[in-house]
């Protein structure tokens, strides 16, 4: 029964891959010269030297309308970015998804019993360009199809949370995109959790370990509030509303989120 179940899921995934590879990209994307005015609608950042993989990722991601590829960087944007993008133009080439019917075909219905049963244990790996199983203790959530998460309810500081994730060969939560912040707000209501970014001096820009700038702050954040001119809040936490706030690294949070790709 278990083997038959896996074969059924595999066929669903195989159909998606065949559909992608049998469809000319020219029939799915148009190119426009636009400027990215706001990254709040960024849903995925990839490091790849293959433009085809970048566009393929946009085809798989149902919320993706725009893809921007530049050498080793691939950024995907939601349809919410459309009006902002069309107001400003420069020499940036954006790939615009035009075949909405194909986009609908690429969606897998979450109500299908076979897919739903396995939905939380299989994710799309952009490292291998294939479906992989989440590690034991981790699961995929419907809001983010390309990462696996593990949560621990326990009192921990920033350092303790980060070390806990490292012990599991994972990293502390890095919500780089709107989708990833939305995932937290939908699944961890009334919770705050540390994210994997820290600064060492006042005025330093918060960045993720890969060097990209942290986005998604609450209004007026980060502000190092009540610091008396000193750096007292050099860590970040995400709130249940999906926005980030600076806090002391010694603050105790009651949940730790780890991730792997």
TrEMBL record:
Residues 1-22 form the signal peptide. InterPro entries: C-type_lectin-like, C-type_lectin-like/link_sf, CTDL_fold. Residues 144-251 form the C-type lectin domain. The keyword Thylakoid does not apply. PROSITE patterns: C_TYPE_LECTIN_2. SMART domains: CLECT (SM00034). Keywords: Signal. It comes from the Eukaryota. This is C-type lectin domain-containing protein. The lineage of its organism: Eukaryota, Metazoa, Spiralia, Gnathifera, Rotifera.
């Amino acid at each position: 029964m278990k083997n038959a179940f896996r074969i059924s899921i595999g066929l669903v995934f195989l159909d998606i891959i065949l559909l992608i590879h049998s469809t000319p990209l020219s029939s799915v994307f148009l190119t426009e010269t636009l400027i990215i005015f706001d990254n709040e609608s960024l849903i995925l950042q990839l490091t790849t030297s293959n433009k085809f993989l970048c566009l393929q990722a946009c085809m798989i991601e149902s919320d993706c309308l725009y893809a921007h590829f530049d050498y080793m960087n691939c950024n995907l944007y939601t349809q919410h970015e459309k009006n902002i993008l069309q107001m400003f133009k420069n020499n940036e080439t954006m790939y615009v998804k035009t075949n909405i019917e194909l986009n609908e075909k690429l969606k897998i219905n979450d109500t299908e019993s076979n897919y739903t049963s396995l939905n939380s244990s299989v994710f799309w790996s952009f490292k291998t360009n294939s479906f992989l199983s989440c590690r034991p203790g981790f699961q995929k959530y419907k809001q983010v199809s390309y990462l696996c998460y593990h949560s621990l309810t326990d009192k921990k500081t920033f350092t303790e949370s980060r070390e806990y994730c490292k012990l599991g060969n994972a990293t502390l939560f890095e919500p780089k995109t709107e989708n990833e912040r939305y995932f937290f707000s939908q699944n961890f209501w009334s919770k705050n959790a540390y994210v994997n970014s820290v600064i060492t001096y006042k005025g330093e820009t918060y960045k993720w370990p890969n060097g990209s700038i942290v986005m998604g702050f609450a209004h007026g954040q980060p502000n190092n509030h009540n610091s008396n001119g000193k750096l007292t809040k050099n860590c970040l936490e995400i709130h249940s509303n999906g926005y980030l706030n600076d806090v002391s690294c010694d603050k105790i949070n009651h949940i730790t989120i780890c991730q792997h790709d």
